[in-house]
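Researcher: I'd like a structural prediction for the single chain below. Treat it as a standalone chain; there are no partners to consider.
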Amino acid sequence: MIKVEFSGSGEEIRVEMLKLLGLYEPEASVKSKTSKENRTIDETKSQLIKSKTPRRNKNTGISWNEEEVSVLFQGIKPNAQKILLELAKKPKGYPRKDLLQALGLEESSARGQLSSIGAALRRMGGKPSPISRKKKDGEFIYGLDTAVAEALRRQVN
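Model: Treating it as a single chain, here is the predicted structure.
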């Protein structure tokens, strides 16, 4: 077990946590009035490294080709592959509860598996997710880019 403890002002703790996570650029600085070392850090120059990947499909119009779908599919965990294949059966709308029931997964397990899709997308240079999610009548409905659904069906058959 690793234990990390921070002390200081809220801003100092935020900066140190960002450094620990690798989300803080070393040349950037933030000004802190309560720093014991009196380090000078200019807040206006601080920059976070922002993810190039939107978490969900935002109808960006970016299309998927057969090779990209294959790279994505091979780069994710087996249960995430099952999720994509199940979504390919109803790409225009799959209620979350029905999807989880069809796969025999708990909500938390599905989230963990879907995270491997996000990691694969980042490895692909930040391609937007082919999965969309919207709320209808209080329930989440998942969708899958139709080009991805068709490519997955062709690859499996």
